[in-house]
Amino acid sequence: MAEEAKSLNFIEHIIEDDLKEGFNKEGLRFRFPPEPNGYLHIGHASSICLNFGLGEKYNAPVNLRFDDTNPAKEEQAFVDAIKRDVEWLGYKWDEVRYASDYFQQLYDWALVLIKKGKAYVDSQPSEKIAEQKGTPNTPGTESPYRNRSVEENLSLFEQMKNGDFKEGEHVLRAKIDMASSNMLMRDPVMYRILHKAHHRTNTDWCIYPMYDWTHGESDYIEQVSHSFCTLEFAMHRELYNWFLEQVYDPNKVKPKQREFARRNLSHTVVSKRKLLRLVEEGVVKGWDDPRMPTISGLRRRGYTPDSIKNFAKTIGIAKRDNLIDVSLLEFHAREDLNKKAPRIMAVLNPLKVVITNYPENTDEYLEAENNPEEDVLTYRKVPFSREIYIEQEDFREEANRKFFRLKLGGEVRLKNAYIIKAEKAVKDDQGNIVEVHCTYDPLSKSGSGTPESQRKVKGTLHWVSIPHAKEVEVREYDRLFTEAEPDRHKEKDFLEFVNPDSLRIVKGYVEPSVETAKEGDHFQFQRIGYFNVDRDTTHEKLVFNKTVGLRDTWAKIDSK
């Protein structure tokens, strides 16, 4: 019991304490409240896993609620993308809700506040209102319109709703305390005028509620018990509670806001505004570009739902913001794909090898293991012939004793095949090696049980039979930024740190077993890394994305 209590994060402790104090477990309800103004990113994944994970743990409903109060930036396409991402991660929401569902109720409650003398229409420009807010060390100044009569406020607010005024001409503000130490309590704006069509309500409304007014009241309408958000909203909690107090019925659940730390990922950015710049300025090819930290981008690159959920579990829920090295996310991708991805052979930097003593116009099919991590091993047939490709870096004319790959006069084993010996290097007019002639030991076939097959040689190479090879396009991705924190330099634009080598496209060759592979299929290219089939694949051309290498090559680079 003590161990279980110790393993709880501080959010779970809050819930457990509430239950001990008499809160009815049947009243637990959570929500994930994204704004549909962009795609979800890896930072959102922690919030998704937290809220839906709590729902699973306590068998409580979780709403997917879109905070759609800014028609200038929101689109149905973003709503659809968010739904896809949450479903792909494996979570199921209880209901899909929208803040726009509550526009009428929010308006009606705003009228109640006006009638109570707790809200008023301010007719000053936004710059003047901001100036009158004061500073953290000096109190604000009351608006000259703060003491308008209830009747005048009701009339002006109705005209705002009806579209009788221009944008910026009036706002509705809560009347709280212009001397509060919390500047958010200094008569915050509740409504602004926007003459823009909404993706759901079209032009029904000319005024739109602000986040602080909308969020807590939406939680209350949905009877959300615990509302979790990131640390930047900690100062908003006082206002969240003040707004709730104005409409709260003691017979209903009063939502509780609590905050947890944002997790930033190294070598990328997670600000939606900056992600939008990457898209709009053509640095990447859309929100789902495999270099993007969006969930859609990670999915397209080949990350699995489990790898992202395991990453979120590892970094946990904390009270202090932190920068997480992207290598941890890559580790979880490797760990998960190692269990799930079938192995195939692919050559990305080909060098032709001719096995001179292998019969011409002959081939054979060798048995190869699909994945040694499987509980029940399965196998496939791989064609072998006189001419094969190996990687160029796997051959040297001369090499020291630590080079265990192919060299003149030296032997290696071809995986699942035979032992070969390099006899001759063929060069072009510029002196480049274009072909290697080898001989093979026909009695050394892997798994044949002969003494020759059990002979030990230090190197094992992957290969592809040239007559059977399928040509593919391979997109090798690297970190999007050369700096771990590209947006921490206030005097520089974060785009100055874009990695010019974040994408390299090469022509590769793979064994024919993948000919029928479809979008999203995962593979380990043996001795190279993990790859998946991209959506640009056609019947004529297979396109692979490199998800992650077999090892963390950046660890060495960073140490230098």
TrEMBL record:
<dbReference type="InterPro" id="IPR001412">
    <property type="entry name" value="aa-tRNA-synth_I_CS"/>
</dbReference>
<dbReference type="InterPro" id="IPR011035">
    <property type="entry name" value="Ribosomal_bL25/Gln-tRNA_synth"/>
</dbReference>
<keyword id="KW-0547">Nucleotide-binding</keyword>
<dbReference type="InterPro" id="IPR050132">
    <property type="entry name" value="Gln/Glu-tRNA_Ligase"/>
</dbReference>
<dbReference type="Pfam" id="PF00749">
    <property type="entry name" value="tRNA-synt_1c"/>
</dbReference>
<dbReference type="Pfam" id="PF20974">
    <property type="entry name" value="tRNA-synt_1c_C2"/>
</dbReference>
<feature type="domain" description="Glutamyl/glutaminyl-tRNA synthetase class Ib catalytic">
    <location>
        <begin position="29"/>
        <end position="338"/>
    </location>
</feature>
<keyword id="KW-0963">Cytoplasm</keyword>
<dbReference type="InterPro" id="IPR049437">
    <property type="entry name" value="tRNA-synt_1c_C2"/>
</dbReference>
<keyword id="KW-0436">Ligase</keyword>
<dbReference type="InterPro" id="IPR004514">
    <property type="entry name" value="Gln-tRNA-synth"/>
</dbReference>
<comment type="similarity">
    <text>Belongs to the class-I aminoacyl-tRNA synthetase family.</text>
</comment>
<dbReference type="GO" id="GO:0016874">
    <property type="term" value="F:ligase activity"/>
</dbReference>
<keyword id="KW-0648">Protein biosynthesis</keyword>
<feature type="region of interest" description="Disordered">
    <location>
        <begin position="124"/>
        <end position="146"/>
    </location>
</feature>
<keyword id="KW-0030">Aminoacyl-tRNA synthetase</keyword>
<dbReference type="InterPro" id="IPR020058">
    <property type="entry name" value="Glu/Gln-tRNA-synth_Ib_cat-dom"/>
</dbReference>
<dbReference type="InterPro" id="IPR020056">
    <property type="entry name" value="Rbsml_bL25/Gln-tRNA_synth_N"/>
</dbReference>
<keyword id="KW-0067">ATP-binding</keyword>
<feature type="domain" description="Glutamyl/glutaminyl-tRNA synthetase class Ib anti-codon binding">
    <location>
        <begin position="341"/>
        <end position="441"/>
    </location>
</feature>
<dbReference type="InterPro" id="IPR020059">
    <property type="entry name" value="Glu/Gln-tRNA-synth_Ib_codon-bd"/>
</dbReference>
<feature type="domain" description="tRNA synthetases class I (E and Q) anti-codon binding">
    <location>
        <begin position="460"/>
        <end position="534"/>
    </location>
</feature>
<dbReference type="InterPro" id="IPR014729">
    <property type="entry name" value="Rossmann-like_a/b/a_fold"/>
</dbReference>
<protein>
    <recommendedName>
        <fullName>Glutamine--tRNA ligase</fullName>
        <ecNumber>6.1.1.18</ecNumber>
    </recommendedName>
</protein>
<feature type="compositionally biased region" description="Polar residues">
    <location>
        <begin position="134"/>
        <end position="146"/>
    </location>
</feature>
<dbReference type="Pfam" id="PF03950">
    <property type="entry name" value="tRNA-synt_1c_C"/>
</dbReference>
